[in-house]
Automatic annotation (TrEMBL), chains A, B:
Top-level taxon in the UniProt lineage: Bacteria
Organism listed in the record: Chloroherpeton thalassium (strain ATCC 35110 / GB-78)
Keyword entries, A-Z: Lyase
UniProt similarity note: Belongs to the RuBisCO large chain family.
UniProt GO MF annotations: magnesium ion binding; ribulose-bisphosphate carboxylase activity
Name recorded for this polypeptide: Ribulose-bisphosphate carboxylase
Residues in Ribulose bisphosphate carboxylase large subunit ferrodoxin-like N-terminal domain copies: 34-141
Broad enzyme group: lyase
Length: 433, 433
């Protein structure tokens, strides 16, 4: 790219038609002039400043991505993580806001991903280190997506629970336990007060616990628990599988009484989720395997809130995500950004229920509630329910007791004096906090 | 985990049934004792050392992942990239080989990904930094996959080319050019000697270049070029799109004369590729958007050769990958590992054609050929054909002339004295080398 070509990849926000673009926030470290690097980034990810030989044409105005803002944060001695095969020169840390014309690719998740975190982003000349920090969509783009079918409000209607968090639990042992004892402990957890008993994200349709058998047993156990407790319950079945089996597994599991379905979003692919969204009769819940592989590094990869927003776009009603505390190795501000991404205005795309998880129990509920700052979240212990020393029914009861304490502004230790399940939970799990 | 539980996650290779496991090579940086960290890694990614309350059971023998080898490379002053929320203690860089029972999840790509690069890998206690370096499959696992339908040999049969590299070219301008002029320059490139003219990975089914129209024009142009040159040609159409449209787009494009199809593997999802593989009538070619987001960091994420192997498993016949040289910011040994992963023995899973790409032209062909060390590769210029100063026909001719020079052991500069297209290519592209 020559110096005279650089201004063609810059624009002022008021100069462009806002509805024609999606907006991308990048952090990058460049070797060489930041303006040239940012122009290259736009060129590589949209139209590569191409013209046919012998023909005077310029696709940039209609098809070019454009830098709306470029901020040089500071000059660096070297890039922050080593990358081989880079060029020499002065090194800068920068942030850029880029407008990318969405008509280049249309309302297609795989093509959107290819445009914003594809070759044009990660192989732009002179930019060895780059992270896609955030993404924003105009109404015109959002209107071409269906989004969640149920959302927070739909989930609350199914459960008839409006004034408190939704209590999930991951049935454990997760791997190896046959369907019969698995359904028995799920049943116990509903009796104790869980709203949603769920499969682990590692447990899908296996030879030793086939989905048709497991969902039938859990569906029956759910209905029994509903009759006995008089309140609605959800069995959340993990139907993560090959793309050409998920519609069939949806039908089997739902017919058998699973009334919400989980998919490991990135392993299955967001586009497959969008396909299932068109078919589903029940809420869809996302789990997060794979995402940390590209989101954990501070200065490289893709920020997890981008994936949270794309999961909403694909049609998930609730998103399980790495939560608070040391265990999940995720900075608190990142957890909060992901929660915000579940709530924030995305036009007609419904708000979805965030489920920040990680080594939770009755002991951690207050902290999570205070950090979220709302009752619109899901709480998802594993051990905190199924490893409770008095068993899963008591484990679930301990969570509900903790919430009763919190909502009546009573210290849980005080409330535990008259509630033995909570007392046992505090004893068992406090050291793990 | 208590100290007494650690040995249950270690095994000697001769103690396990080799066919029941897949094998994983990890690099990790742990805080605390390496043996405990490696045991945790196994526990988290398979059965979390769980037993029901009050029941004496141990799922580890059948369902537990096991450390076969653990090598402590060195003690570190600190982890090599900052990760928030980690624990305190001595820090070690380690490598481990882990055997993971594939019956835990079965022959399903999304569940395989969830097991080997999911929560259990990236959220294992005390291991903030980890990279999945390699993966190996036993025959019993491979036998449950179809793999490539054509492979290298199938592609060569279609083209009737057996003794040289396959010459691809990315038709440019890639974004914004309407189908008619786009097909005209594709046609020119076939006349000049390209085997395969292809869509850019960013160009799919768009409003300004719909697949039905583009594939019809390119299909007709391909047949015309075949008639005029007397040799088979391939139009490689990019059908990257939502999962529930790729079968339909396959049918439209193939009916119209596209005789190979490209998909952006990770954005579409490997499982969707496996679905298409069952249906396809033509070879499937992978492109690499998104992969760098988790593969570039030396010590974190997932090595690209893991994805290369999974792409073979999913059924791709050829894999376009970041190639040699500064432009693609990929270490040479990583490019070579990816090429090797296309060739190496995977039972009945066919060998696939590696296409290492990045700013290639007649000038770079010799270097790529020498590094690959075989004619079993694809060469994929963009500008080197479509930005050739005499036009795409001359651009394609310059590549073929460069190969004539190489295969007759003539310096390309000497050969260029009597071949003006090659001469012009050397003049135009040498400075870019």
């Amino acid at each position: 790219m020559e110096a005279k070509d650089i201004p063609g990849f810059f624009a002022k926000p008021e100069e462009i038609d806002a509805e024609k673009y999606i907006y991308l926030d990048y952090y990058f470290e460049c070797i060489g002039e930041p303006e040239a690097a940012a122009a290259h980034l736009c060129s590589e990810q949209s139209t590569a400043q191409w013209k046919r030989v012998g023909i005077d044409e310029d696709f940039r105005e209609e098809f070019g991505a454009k830098v709306l803002e470029l901020k040089v944060i500071k000059e660096l001695d070297e890039i922050s993580c080593p990358v081989k095969n880079v060029f020499d020169g002065k090194t800068y840390a920068c942030k850029a806001k880029i407008a990318h014309p969405h008509n280049n690719f249309g309302p297609r998740i795989p093509n959107l991903l290819s445009a914003v975190c594809g070759e044009g982003t990660f192989f732009s000349p002179g930019i060895p280190i780059i992270k896609l920090l955030d993404i924003h969509f105009p109404k015109s783009y959002l209107n071409q997506f269906e989004g969640p079918k149920f959302g927070i409000e739909g989930l609350r209607e199914i459960l008839n629970v409006y004034d408190r968090p939704i209590f999930f639990g991951v049935i454990k042992p997760n791997i190896g336990l046959p369907p019969e004892p698995f359904s028995e402990i799920g049943y116990q957890s509903w009796l104790g007060g869980l709203d949603i008993a769920k499969d682990d994200e590692m447990l899908a349709d296996t030879s030793w616990s086939p989905t048709p058998i497991r969902s039938k047993l859990l569906g029956a156990a759910r209905e029994k628990a509903e009759r006995e407790t008089g309140v609605p319950k959800i069995y959340l079945a993990n139907i993560t599988d090959e793309v050409d089996r998920i519609i069939e597994l949806h039908d089997i599991a739902v017919e058998n009484g699973a009334n919400a379905l989980m998919l490991n979003a990135m392993p299955v692919g967001l586009s497959a989720v969008r396909m299932l969204r068109k078919h589903t009769k029940v809420p869809l819940i996302a789990h997060f395997p794979f995402t940390a592989s590209f989101s954990r590094m501070q200065h490289y990869g893709i920020h997890s809130q981008v994936i949270t927003k794309l999961q909403r776009l694909a049609g998930f009603d609730s998103i399980i995500m790495p939560g608070f505390g040391n265990r999940m190795m995720t900075p608190e501000d990142e957890v909060l950004q992901n929660i915000k991404a579940c709530y924030e205005d995305m036009g007609h795309i419904k708000r979805v229920l965030p489920v920040p998880g990680g080594s939770d129990s009755a002991v951690t509920l207050k902290n999570v509630y205070e950090k979220v700052g709302s009752t619109d979240f899901g709480f998802v212990p594993g051990r905190g329910v199924f490893g409770h020393p008095m068993g899963p029914k008591a484990g679930a009861a301990s969570i509900r007791q903790a919430w009763e304490a919190i909502s009546s502004a009573t210290p849980i230790e005080t409330y535990a004096e008259t509630h033995e399940e909570l007392k046992a939970a505090i004893h068992a799990f406090s050291k793990r906090k």
